[in-house]
Amino acid sequence: MATASPPMEQRPNIPSATIRLPGVKDYEQIDREIIGTLKPTLGWFAALAVAILCLLIGLSSWFYQVYSGLGVAGYHPPVMWGVYIITFVFWVGIGHAGTLISAILYLFRAGFRTSIYSCAVAMTVFAVMTAGLFPILLLGRPWKFFWLIPYPNWRLLWPQFKSPLVWDVFAILTYLTVSSTFLYIGLIPDIATLRDKETNPVRKAIYGAMSLGWRNSDREWRHFTRA
C-alpha cells in the first residue's frame, strides 16, 4: 500500500513568498525604504566634499608629475615598474574578490544573494574602473593613451602586442564590459521600481528606457531568478 510522502521542508536559503521577514509588512515598504536612501543628506554632501578634495589633490599631483616627469614617482632606470603597477594589481584583486563573492553565492543558490550580489558586482565594476587609471598614469605622455588601442590610422602603426601595457588594456576592457553587463542586468527590476515611483517626466523616461520594458510579471521574475 502506497504511503504519502512527508511534505518537503522549505530550506532557508531558497527564496519564497511565504517567508516573511520581521519588521516587513509588504514589498511596498521595502521599495519606499530603499528609494528613501537615494535622497542626499547632509552627511552625503560632506562625504562628497571630502571626495572632491581628494580628487583635486590627486589631480594636482598628477599635473606635477606630467610637468616634472616620472622620476617624481620613483621611476629611474633600471626601475621601470613601481607604485602604479602595484596599485593596479591591488585594484584588480579587489575586483576579483567581488566576482568571487557573487560566483560562490550563485553556485550555492543562496536565497539572500541578491543584495550581496549587487554590492559585490558594483565593487568589481568600480575597482576595475579605478585599476584602469593606473596604466594611463604610468605613461610618460598619458594624453597618447589611445595609442595602446589598435585602430586604423594613416601611419599604419599598431601597438606592440608583446607589451604588458597592451595586455592591461584588453584585460581591463573585457573585465569591465562583462562586469558592467552583470551589474546592469541585476539592476533592471530596481530601475523599473524607480520608473514607477518617479513623477518627473524626464527622469521617468530615462528610467523607462533603462528598465527595458520590465513589467514585474511572474514570467519575467522566473527568467530573472534563473540568470
- Please report the distance between the alpha carbons of the first and last residues: 42 Å
Q: Describe the biggest sheet? A: none
Number of helices: 8
Overall mean pLDDT = 79
Q: Which class of secondary structure composition applies to the elements?
A: mainly alpha
* Proportion of strand residues: under 5%
What is the H/E order?
HHHHHHHH
Number of strands: 0
Instruction: Tell me the helix content.
Output: 55-70%
Q: Which word captures the global form? A: elongated
Q: What does the model show?
A:
The protein is an all-alpha fold and 227 residues long. It has a domain of 106 residues. Helix content is 62%, strand content 0%. The radius of gyration is 24 Å and the shape is elongated.
What's the quick description here?
The protein is mostly helical. The protein has 8 helices and no strands. The radius of gyration is 24 Å and the shape is elongated.
Describe the secondary-structure layout:
Layout: H1 27-36, H2 42-68, H3 83-107, H4 113-131, H5 133-138, H6 164-197, H7 201-210, H8 218-226
Helix pairs in contact: 3-4, 4-6, 6-7
Keywords:
single chain; 227 residues; mainly alpha; 8 helices
